[in-house]
Amino acid sequence: MQAAEVDKGSGSGRGKGTPARQFPGSGTDIAAGLFLLVCGLLGSWLGQDLKVGTAYRMGPGYAPMLLSWILGGFGLVLAILGVLRAGTPLERWNLRRLVLVLGAMVVFGLTVERLGLFIASLLAVAIAAMAGDRARMREIGLLACCMAGFACLLFAFALQLPLRVLP
Predict the structure, then answer these.
(1) Cα–Cα distance for residue pair 84/88, rounded to 1 Å
(2) Which residue among 13, 36, 140, 148 is least crowded, i.e. fewest CB within 10 A of its CB?
């Protein structure tokens, strides 16, 4: 037979009878590793103006630089392991889910000062929960109320951060 397998319609998004793409490594691990590596390099670059100091006398840039290097190191190891071992290929991104989750963060940031922590949290959790496959209004409402209540208890009362709870 041929080297390429034939997908029998397993729900992977390809049509029946189309050749499955062969990938030598784990696309998911490679992409995640490269993302972590880029984040680590970006953190190192952005923190280069901060004074690092020594392990005994740490400067303001010591912890960010150390964490950036650790993050980049984990990313490099993950990317190398992804190349060396077989795994799952990258799947297509679901644009609807991406927009809903990122939109929830934007809505929270834009509403937390005007509407207060409770309402902003309600909106953010409800919008992000709509990205799921089984979005049920009753469950989303209960989840949003519990998460918003917990956020208010934690940030406004326990940690006493200067946040308005309600408008």
Answers:
(1) 13
(2) 13
